[in-house]
Every structure is written in structure tokens, then in C-alpha cells.
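Journal club prep — side note

Before the paper discussion, L.F. wants everyone to see what a predicted structure for a comparable chain looks like in C-alpha cell form. Sequence:
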Amino acid sequence: MISVLVVLASPFVVFWLFANRSPAAAVTTSILGAYLLLPRNYSIELPAVPSLNKDSIPALAATLAAAMLIQGPRLHALVPGMVLPGLWPRSRVIRILFIMMLGGAAATVLTNGDTLRYGPQVLPALRPYDAASALGYTLFSLLPFLLARKYLAHPDAQKILLVGLVVAALIYSLPALYEVRMSPQLSRNIYGYFPHDWVQHLRGGGFRPVVFLSHGLWLAIFFCTSFLAALALWRSSSGKDRMRWLAASVWLFMTLVLSKGVGALGIGLLLGAMILFLPIRLQVIGAAVLAAVLLVYPMLRGADMVPTEAALTLAEAVDHGRAASLKTRFDNEDILLDKANQRPAFGWGGWGRNRVFNDEGWDMSVTDGYWILAIGTRGWIGYLSEFGLLLVPMIFLGLRWKTLALTPATAGLSLALTANMIDLIPNATLTPVTWLLAGALAGRLELGRVVDTGKETGLARPIRHSAYTRQTRRHPAQAAALP
């Protein structure tokens, strides 16, 4: 009952935020708050419509609230360039990827009209009727990206997003540390369910916290991205604020360690060192290089160009159990890639059709990494369009860092998103927060070069649009700011 009330009450909270806070703060709080606090054990199921749940309901409410409440005098009162015009991106590259992702979702359904039989195991065919649900699911998933592209493109708005990540993580660290000591029980005590397998959250003689997320690994990567956000704020601050962000960084790093996510901790150490020791341009370029590697990782993996044997040897030196787990992961990726390449363009669709079964109908595969899940279910078209939306803006930012005059906030967001994208190799930790970060970077690229208007206000304005986007009619608030 509590789950139902909380989820159904969330749209009213979202509307209140958009009525009383700045657009950037409202978008950040709506998406972050819903992801961290709402339960996953309640959803509304309607015919031909994807599940309405903790991810889709707040995103839909935020889109509607923004359209109704941020307009007219309130919109024109904002700093020029703070809000990009329209919800639909103007970038030709992003538009192409959007069309690929939507068209690929429909094509996946239309090319999987056959029933699969593996001994006694029967997997149903996909019907044209399912295409509507697939398109709806894709659109719902992309709403945080579209909102962030519009309202979190400006450097000042991106700093609000960084602050939101850090503040949310600091607050969330309290229940997380409670579960480290007392076991992950808050979700069961408050919402009446546990989101995953309890055994997977027994680690190192203690507990891996979950709070209200899907799994402890999801919580660990969230603390990792927030830790990087705190470091980015520390690098760009001075005086008392600098000490506050340093203290926040230390606290979040301690929480990350206690969350017992080894992969997230390693990612945080690597990218945290980049924030600590590299200038802004090298942070952005480094994120772009990592993004390019991540985009082509499945190709490298399929061509046996990933040093899996070296990784196994290194893991064996650390812990035999983790080495065995890593070998199982690599073996499953091999057989899942072979299955995916039987229908390379649009994949096998849902209902477990992408998995590998033996002649007796037993499921022989484990799908951990999101990249292999994306290729298996939606094919290479689906993978390239989805990961392209997440990674291509970072690559372009790295190519255009000099002309765009990027700020520490953008660099911090780039590395925070990079952390989440690296984690998608071993895990399926794609969340609305991931899309929020990616949309903010896509919007920053579309906004173009930005300069400070003065030391007293600390505000910035766009002075030239990037060649990355097609020049179209600008919003009056933007046009007034341009020479």
C-alpha cells in the first residue's frame, strides 16, 4: 500500500518542484529523487503501453510540468541560454541516433515473428502489437535525456546538477551506512519487498547496502559518480566552499569503500585521479578517448582483441573466487555474442529470446553486462543508437574542447558519465541518472561556446553555437544574448 501511495504521489511532488524551483533544480531533483527513493515493486500495466513505474511516471510528470509551468514571462526571465529551445534536439547526429533507436525498436518486433522452441522450452513470437509497447518504452527511457538536454545544457545549470548529485549522495549515505551495519533491510521494512538476491549482498564478512535501488552494485556506482562530482566541485571552488567539497569527497569515498563495490571503487580511483591531477582539457579529452573505446568495445570483444587472459591472470592474483566469476562472465559473453550474430541487425527481442538454451530447454547463459544485453535483444542497430546517444556527445566535446571553452562542471559531468558507462561493461547499471548526465552533455555541445558575463553575477552566456548543430531559429531569450 505504501508503494502505491508513494509512486502515485510523485507527480504532485514533481509539479511542486517545477512551480517553486528553477528548471535546472526541478529536473535534477525530480529524476534523482524518484530514482533514489521510489520503490520498484509497483507499476501500472496498461494494454500496448510499457510499465508505468518509478522511472517513467516521474519523467512523464516532469515533461508535462515543464511544458505547463516554464513558459512566458518565467521563461524569458531566465539567464539567456539557460534553457535551449524545444524538446527535440537540433543536432543532426542526435536526431539520426534517435530515429535509429526508435526505428530499430519497431524493426526488432517486426523481425521476430517466429516462435522459438528448445526442447520443452517455448519462447513466444513478437507481435506487431508489441511494437507500440517497444516504442513507448524507448520514448519513456529517453525523457530524462531530452529534459537534461533542454534544461541542463548551460554551465550554471550543470553545476546545479553536480551539486544535486553530491547532496543526494550525502543524504543517501546515511541509510546506506545503516545497512552496512544492520543489513539491507530498509526496502523490505518500508516497501515490503527485497529487490534482488539476499546472498549477493553478503560481502567481506558484512553487508553490501541496497537502500531502495535494484542492487548493491547500482548503489555503488551511484556513490562513485557522486564522489567524482564532489571532486569536480572541489577543483573548481575556492575558500570555504573548497573545504566543504573536499570534506564531501572524503565522506563519499569512505561510503563508496564501505559499499563493497570493487568495480565501482576501481573506477572511482582511476577517474578521481584524472580530476585531481589533469587540467580541464585533458579531463575532457580523456573522457572522450574512453568513450570511443567503450563504443567499439563489443567489436573488439568479438574480434578477440580484448586481453581477457591477462584480465583473468590479474584477477587470479587478487582472488580465486573473483577470477572464477570473471571467467564465467567471459564464457557467457562469447556464447551470447555468437547467438546475437545470428540476427545481427535488430537482435532477438525480449522474452529471453536472446539467451542460449540447450536441447533440453535449460538456459545456459547469464547476461550481466548491459552491452551484451543490448546487442542480443536489439541488435547492432539498437546498440549503436543507444550507446551512441550516451557516448557520442562526450566524443564531440573532446574534439571541440578548445572552441567550446568548457568549464570544470562539464568536465566533471563527463567523467561521472564515463564512470557509469565503464560499469555497463560488467553490469546493467543503466538508469535515468545515466540518461540525465548524457542529455546534459548533449545540450552543452549544442549550446556552443559560453563566456562569463561578469564576476559579480558569476553567470555565463552563449556567444557562438557549435558547428555540431544545424543553425535554426533561436528562442528569443537566446537570440537576445547573441552578438
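L.F.'s comment for the group: The chain is about 65% helix and 5% strand. Keep this in mind when we get to the figures.
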